[in-house]
Design goal:
There is one protein chain. The termini are far apart. It is built from nine helices and no strands. It is 54% helix and 0% strand. It is mainly α and 179 residues long.
Length: 179
């Protein structure tokens, strides 16, 4: 009887799936618990990361700006339009990344998370590039908005000196988009 009731509920369209409407408490708990447990189990399967050396962190900054800021924001930078419309709301990585191990952050970045808007970057990026993003996120945890702004300005100056903006001149996370 319970499976038939569940099917009737599904086919009724009674559950509002609009991103502008939050989940019920029970659904939110079920999704969040499923996500957390899945990440914890699979994070244990990730190989050891490379050393988080300064060159890796610098590369991670570029990856973070390319892949993360538009949804997660950064210190002193609001998420972009797409990130503001996601439900569940993407976490502010500088504040919430400590809840995950390096391996778990890598796994999330590589494989994405269903039903959250978090894409899988593994099909388009090498593992070393994803580890670089994780290395930068670890630095982000202690970074102030001023320090992030300095990093953005320094990187923009480097790219300009090289004759390239690298696609960042008007991307979220640049000084033009800081709030």
């Amino acid at each position: 009887l319970l499976p038939l009731g569940g099917l009737a509920f599904i086919y009724s369209g009674g559950y509002n799936v609009a991103a502008t409407d939050g989940h019920s408490g029970l659904v939110q708990w079920a999704l969040e618990t499923t996500k957390e447990r899945s990440i914890r189990v699979r994070g244990d399967e990730v190989p050891e990361p490379p050393p988080f050396e300064s060159a890796l962190v610098v590369a991670g900054f570029d990856g973070f700006r390319d892949m993360c800021v538009q949804c997660h924001g950064a210190p002193g930078v609001d998420p972009g339009v797409n990130g503001q419309g996601l439900n569940p709301e993407p976490p502010e990585l500088g504040e919430e990344a400590h809840e995950f191990s390096d391996a778990e952050l890598f796994w999330i970045t590589k494989h994405g998370v269903k039903f959250t808007g978090m894409p899988a970057f593994g099909p388009t990026h090498a593992d070393r590039d994803l580890w670089a993003v994780v290395a930068f996120i670890r630095e982000l945890e202690e970074m102030t908005p001023e320090e992030y702004g300095i990093r953005v300005a320094e990187r923009e100056a480097q790219l300009e000196a090289q004759g390239s903006t690298g696609g960042h001149s008007h991307a979220p996370g640049t000084p033009e988009h800081e709030h």
